[in-house]
Specification:
Helices cover 41% and strands 30% of the residues. By secondary structure, it is an alpha+beta fold. The protein has one domain: Sandwich (Jelly Rolls). It has a 4-stranded antiparallel β-sheet, covered by helices on one side. Strands 2-7-4-5 form a 4-stranded antiparallel β-sheet, with no helix packed on it. The longest helix has 66 residues. The termini are far apart. It holds the Pfam family EMP24_GP25L. Belongs to the EMP24/GP25L family. It is a single-pass membrane protein; Single-pass type I membrane protein. This is LALA0S01e13344g1_1. InterPro entries: Emp24-like (IPR015720), GOLD_dom (IPR009038), GOLD_dom_sf (IPR036598).
Length: 202
């Protein structure tokens, strides 16, 4: 029974870990919704990546934030590898944010993102709790630090793949050069032996 409970908790943890990473279809997009009130803040940090373990390219994509009913675009980022967007909501409603792969046919492109919302609290309101505001601010800064660390991990993975690919090419180029030098040496030995060979006619 304990093994079953442990397995169930591990499965829930894995689902939670993958909740903010989505695969973008080729020439498609993925959209998400948030219901917010006027003067709330919406903060989204994201990074485009490649699910292929052999990839060395830095993926890019588009990001848009739409107002209620998609009437207007509040924020737009085109052909970026990562971003950190923060907007103050102008009115109540359901806001949509989309990650787009419409200009690319890559099928292994994904996006890792974190979202947080800050509820507006009037500082002049006598019911406002300043300690609560300080805790929220500390929590927001902690999440930003975590998001930055996640971004650094993804960049390190991409750079490591690039370095390993370059090292592989240098290794095979060195092997090829060694082969050429050996062949050239053997040819020179053969040629010099033929050049100094004494021929006699009877």
């Amino acid at each position: 029974m304990k093994l079953f409970a442990f397995g169930f908790l591990a499965l829930l943890w894995l689902v939670g870990c993958n909740a903010h990473t989505v695969l973008l279809p080729a020439h498609g997009q993925r959209c998400f919704y948030e219901t917010l009130k006027s003067r709330d803040e919406l903060a989204i940090s994201f990074q485009f990546g490649d699910r292929s373990p052999d990839s060395t390219d830095q993926m890019t994509g588009d990001f848009m934030v739409y107002g209620p009913n998609r009437r207007d675009i509040l924020k737009e980022e085109r052909d970026v590898s990562h971003g950190d967007v923060r907007i103050s909501v102008p009115q109540d409603g359901k806001f949509e944010y989309c990650f787009s792969n419409e200009r690319s046919g890559v099928t292994t492109k994904d996006v890792t993102f974190n979202i947080e919302g800050i509820v507006y609290v009037n500082e002049n309101d006598p019911k406002a709790d300043s300690l609560d505001g300080a805790v929220r601010q500390l929590s927001r800064l902690t999440r930003e630090l975590k998001n930055e660390q996640s971004y650094i991990v993804i960049r390190e993975r991409t750079h490591r793949n690039t370095a390993e690919s370059t090292n592989d090419r240098v290794k095979w180029w060195s092997v090829f050069q060694l082969f050429v030098v050996i062949v050239n040496s053997l040819f020179q030995i053969y040629y010099l032996r033929r050049f100094f060979e004494v021929t006699s006619f009877v």
